[in-house]
Amino acid sequence: APVCRIPKLRNTMKMKTLTKLIMPLALSLLTTADLGAQELIANVYGRETQSLNGKWDAIVDLYDQGRKNKIYLNRKPEGKTDFYEYSFENGLRLDVPSDWNSQTPELKYYEGTVWYARRFDAPKQEGQRQFLHFGAVSYRCRVYLNGEEIGSHEGGFTPFQIEVTGKVKPSGNFLAVEVNNTRTPDAIPAMAFDWWNYGGITRDVSLVSVPDAFIEDYFIRLGKDSADRIDADIRLSGATPGTAVEIEIPELKVRKTAVTDERGTATMSFNVKKLDRWSPAAPKLYRVIVSTGRDRVEESIGFRNIRVEGEEIVLNGAPLFLKSISFHEEIPQRMGRAHSEADAVMLLSEAKALGCNMIRLAHYPQNEYIVRLAEKMGFLLWEEIPIWQGIDFGNDRTREKAGRMIKEMVIRDKNRCALAFWGVANETQPSEARNAFLRYLISCCRSIDDTRLIVAAFDLVRFDRERQLFVMNDPFIEELDVVAINKYMGWYHPWPLTPDKAVWDVARGKPLIISEFGGEALYGQHGPADVASSWSEEYQAALYADNLRMFENIPNLRGVSPWILFDFRSPFRFHPTNQDGWNRKGLVSDQGYRKKAWYLMKEYYDKH
Ligand code: GCB
Q: Which residues line the pocket of ligand 1, CB cutoff 6 A?
């Protein structure tokens, strides 16, 4: 199981709550086993890996004939009468990692199946276990090694791995991956969403080697309400109970040991002296080394406290205002998915220039380069899974998938102190089915990590004419630590009164974040500041000025996150000259030029 603290919960939670947590958890673990994907190894980038990135052979399988014809066997004619109507040689070649849409014009709009294949050698290492690790494949895939199906995965933005110990040969392995990005009503996201549905092996692929008894997972963090106590849970795989595990933090002069219990987990809690806590202003990280007699892994970890007190979000004991921005995992200039460290530098530098202290990673877990660099650069993070309108909340299979997805996200990033918020949904409508679904997602997060704040974004705020106030009625906000609102005043909603009179009475008693606001403008287009259809920089800037004025009338406002940093590609956007397949709400154009509204936002952030 994932580092899963269910027994610990017994002390703090009622049995009824516990059963509610365990039942769905047990269910979803079963499904994971079905799929052949296994528990994730923490910190793959800190491991001994062989990269399988590069050029892969590819076959576009529009009518899904490949599996039926077992093309993953990669057979070659031997006898005189043999022939096979496929070959992975001398055909299309695609980059991994990358989306397929941006690699050849024929695949720009493609939604369907593409087969990827490559050969690799894996020199034998005695006493080692090996795992194939995929950072992400969009959206679903089946993996075949040397002619055998070894696993599958669904969900385009989270990692998975498959153990291949004893299955990889020292040389001449043939790895095929059947990737499909067809939209379906039971998928997450489902049939329509406001971003580009890139397909492909979009993140790094590696062969990870670990000792046969190895450090599988760990969760090392500052105690929830303590400025100097570090809590750690470390889980070993393949080790006998009673194995000693050590944590070393040289800069803090820490060297602590504990032994594993019968589940393979070692638990430690210890106080440290002179800890510099991580914050956006001082993003201090410490070198942490976890080791056993057989295995050793190290990485940089930061320590901080985050909690809610009444209407405040409190970081390291002090109230904080979140100066956030969103971006998609996309490089607009390249019209493709972001997948490298250089891409992360581009996206995050522009957020830094705006003066942000937080990123809302829209609308799905983004790659680890972005998450890790954001932490180093001093951004808090909000990470969510693509529960984005139109989700089939009544479908149990969809719920299981979402649960697995959110767990993969939490497992991957739980050691990143920058991560402050787990987002469970964006723009959902109240219903019993939705409530049960989201409650389940919250229980999935909390079963692994109960230290982050749980948030969801709603678009239900409306103007109450009688009370002359902006209000919202969704009882689900009671289940959240922080309430987030997407509200497009001046774009989707005309102003019912002037911005200085637009007062909010929403989610009082809790911190509120404006998680989206904005409007579209085409960079370099000038026009009247009061005509939306001018798509002008002037209109967008005036809209920003109005919204920033309204924010003064939201008493529990503790952060804002404009939509969005860059123009992004979206099949929702049909206007031939102003949009041409792009959502133009960016503060920065698709070519990287700052629009007028950028400067207003920058000034606002500099003042806060
Ligand atoms: C929203 C969605 C976001 C869209 C945005 C828009 O409310 O959360 O994904 O892109 O509005 O531009 O309409």
A: 194, 363, 426-427, 459, 486, 516, 563, 583, 585
Q: How far apart are CA 128 and CA 212, in angstroms?
A: 5
Question: DSSP characters for 251-280?
Answer: GGTEEEEEE--TTSEEEEEEE-SS-----S
Please compute, for residue 217, the number of CA atoms within 13 A of its CA located in the half-sphere on the CB side.
21
Q: What is the DSSP string of 33-61?
A: HHHT--PPPS-GGGSEEEE--EEEEEEEE
DSSP 319: E
Phi, psi of 261 (to 5 degrees): -90, -170
Summary count for the chain: helices (H), strands (E): 8, 34
Ligand 1 atom closest to 518 (CA) = 12
The pLDDT score that the predictor gives to residue 39 is 84
276: number of Cβ within 10 Å: 14
* Residue 189: closest CA among 405, 383, 371, 337: 405
- Give the pLDDT score at 437: 98
Question: Residue 565's CB: how many other CB atoms inside 10 A?
Answer: 26
Do residues 440 and 395 touch, judged by C-beta distance below 8 A?
A: no
Q: What is the pLDDT of residue 26?
A: 39
pLDDT given for residue 38 in this prediction:
62
**Which residue ranges in the chain fall short of pLDDT 70?**
1-38
The secondary structure of the chain in percent helix, strand, coil, rounded to multiples of 5, reads 20, 30, 45
Distance 590 CA to ligand 1 centre (A): 17
Q: What's the confidence (pLDDT) of residue 125?
A: 83
Spell out the residues 6+ positions from residue 4 whose beta carbon is closer than 8 angstroms to its own.
25, 447, 448
